Amino acid sequence: MISTRHSLSDFTGLTPLSETTTCVDPQAAYRVLRERWGQVAPVELEPGVPAWLVMGYPEILHVVRNERLFARNPLHWRLLSDGVVRQDSGLGPMMFPRDNAYFADGVRHRRLRAPLDEGIAGIDQHALVRSLQATCRDLIRGFAERGEADLVTEYASVIPMLAVSSLFGISTEHGHQLRAGLIALFGSGEDSQEGNRTFERILTEVMQSHAASPAKDLTTAFLTHPNLHDSDEVVQSIVLMISAGYETTTSWIAQTIRLMLTDPRFAGRLHGGRLGVDDALDEVLFRDPPMANMPARYALADTELAGQPIRAGDALILGLGAANADARMHTDDPWLETGNRSHLAFSAGPHTCPALDPSRLITRTAVTTALTELHDLTLAIRPEEIELLPSPWTRCPASLPVRFVASDVPIVEQEVSHG
């Protein structure tokens, strides 16, 4: 059904966006929205704050490739400039302006993105793999004797934070503190802004210590990069890299392990089956991507999208999880889709995530090490009992309880391919 109304404010009784991320079957939730509204649906970000959820694959590509009509800068968000969105809103850390590439357009976006691209290109992947393997083994040693563990809180959520933090010369202690702040930030709830303040305070302290004592890490590289003009741009660029790298990779690791343990196509791989870790990595990105709903684009002029009337200043959320299931783009046969990498899990256009390669390397290393070292690994609960962290944006498991054969045997180091 196509709406004939003229403004987002005309809609009532909207579906909260979080209903697509906290349910067992997100595609069922997206399907209900599609049946009612089509490929672009009005949803509620928080009470009284509507936005458009773009669920169609070609519609998302149209939005992300058209900077002249759909901007990333939240200063164009009408509900924010009109005061409808409160300054203390839980949406703030994810949707309010920041001095980094995520919230910039055009020339400014390219200036702020360059240090990120150069920093990622300069990562020594062989050294990163060795460091990751050591981290994974140390974490597994911490619970191997128990024969049970939570592979989110004790493993999947720790590895990305320690890996990304090490690139910026951030201590393990600070890394754990950053993780707590990020869980609140991505939750977009009442504690979101406090979590963001903690996160930024730690990074400001790290930046100041590196200004006094430079090191060979990304913090120093950002501090000395000519494209970053002041301390705010440095801190917010670090905020962007760490927050994006942590949340998406944690979810990717956890969801891939879940898939390998529960889907017969992949579970068989543990006993000689033909679908392996890389197949599972792609499956997760395609069918349940770490960032299910990505904020946001803002219309710069009145337009129409999939039959819906978009007004200047409207917010558009990219339903990446929905778009990957667009019936116009793929089949429903899980075997035929194996190896499909046409997903939008990392978006597209000028704002495509620059860290796909290192995040895949981190995820593959973490998953492979867990599956190799934890023998007879099984999920300790039914798949439908896996709880998710509250967030309108992500579908990150809150926990992943597992059982395995208890062992106090020293773990043998092995290479994990990063090809």
From TrEMBL:
InterPro entries: Cyt_P450_B (IPR002397), Cyt_P450_sf (IPR036396). One of its GO terms (molecular function) is oxidoreductase activity, acting on paired donors, with incorporation or reduction of molecular oxygen. Transmembrane segments: none annotated. Gene3D superfamilies: Cytochrome P450 (1.10.630.10). Signal peptide: none annotated. PANTHER family: CYTOCHROME P450 YJIB-RELATED, P450, PUTATIVE (EUROFUNG)-RELATED. Belongs to the cytochrome P450 family. This is Cytochrome P450.
